[in-house]
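Obj.: predict assembly geometry.
Materials: sequence records (below).
Method: joint structure prediction, all chains together.
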Amino acid sequence: MYRRYLTALQRWTLGLDVWINRIYPSDLNPLYYTGGLTNLFLFVLVLSGIFIFFYYVPSLNGAHASVAYLTEQVPYGGLIRGIHRYAADAFIVAALLHLFRNWFTDRYLFARDSPWISGMFLLLFGGFVGVTGYILVWDERALVVFSEFVRLMRSIPLVGDRFAWVLQAGPGISDETLPRMLLLHVGPASALYVLLWWHYVRLRHPKVWPPATWVLTSLGIVTVLAAVVPAVSGTPAQPGLQPRTMWLDVFYLLPLWLAGYLPPLLVVAGIGLLFIAGFAIPYVNREDPQAMGVRHAGVAQVVDGNCTGCELCYYDCPYNAIVMVPSPYPGATRAAANRKLLAVVIDSRCVECGICIGACPFEALELPAFMEGDLQRRVAEAVRA
Amino acid sequence: MTAAAAGAPRVVGFVCDWAVATAELTDEAGRLRAHPSVVLIRVPCSGFIRPSWLEDALRAGADGVFVVGCPYGDCLNREGNYLMQERLEQLQRRLQRRKVEPERLAMLAHGLHDREAFLADVADLLAALGRLRPPAAAPTRAATPARASAEEGGS
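Observations (raw structure tokens):
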């Protein structure tokens, strides 16, 4: 059932690619660089965020005024605030595209669960940073978001009140609240880079940046949007007063919107279940590669006698699954006797793609299910027939 | 096999498991229905192909070889098709010194559902190979091993 839906989604995803590749050359297809685009927007957010940080005053009376001062008085302040605002939207959009694309095209199988799990943490942290970012502006909308967020937290049994205390830095909204929010905005945002290290650690040559065309286009779109539709604050927040009219960003804050209609505990449980399901994705169906339509090539094997320690496979393995160790003993063959290093495959990191076999000119690597001899025989049959 | 197919250029294609789906295009032996002189061999990734296998296929009597990977930028293993493209270009340059035309080796990139574009590219490749061969030498099988052994002598 799940598998069938996933196959349909994969068909649509790749069908969309075919369509986009008619417009762009395929190596400029923006959907091939969703991860790079996310990283680009994060970089933009960090730079613009540092700028805003110097002007922001985290106090109940000063916050709204300091944001207004930044927007109206500081040269280009409004523009940079707008860039921060729209790059955040773009970050979430790109991250979700990245998630769905890699899910639908099976890029979480075997040893690739590590980027998937770290990706779920990145999404969790990124979403949280987004919410605290809303609150920092401290207008009416921020107050509603904040009180709803606290209400959701309080609904959790046993620990909910403690969470709310941590969020507010006290029993209720006080002068300690906004510094706490600033910490909870900047801290998890910095933690994103630690998680990114985990996200990349098993990848050799990760595609961290999109092509220059898309870097410039994305920066241009965000800048133009920030100039044409400036990011503005609502009226200052006044705790205790009911907001009159308010425009809530449904796209970003869907759970808070839902909490208006459903019991808060249900919403919290829903979000929790969504994440648990997300973490489970790489492990569903994992038992049976045959049923998944994946051929088991077997982990790459090093043919000891042929390995010359040239490191070509080590450079080309996309998953850092090959390490070079000092050649352990004087080998029997000439290659083994003269080498300094020996390639070793780390089984748990190997995704059985066989790229190391193509890299090795010395026939020192093989995939158990695709032996060179069998392939040569099939080629011979093909040309003889 | 028909007489027309017997005269057609013999081509071996290595197809990545994640690239274009060919199950409906071939018979059990991997022979393309549309072009019976083309045999497809499925491999786990285009980067799996050792360039010497392509050379061996040409030496064994194939008129052309090609590798099909995913669209550039969309390799499941991120790099397989780029690596293969580079290795294939190096092989083309290397074989050119032995008077093997670069047109005999091709790198194609087609996604899972790019069936039509894939078949069109194969047809183009066959047409290019047809133009390469001197018409007089074309029909007999003896002509191709002779070319191959001539290369051997040079190396």
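Conclusions so far: Chain B has five helices and four strands.
To do: check interface contacts against the pulldown list.
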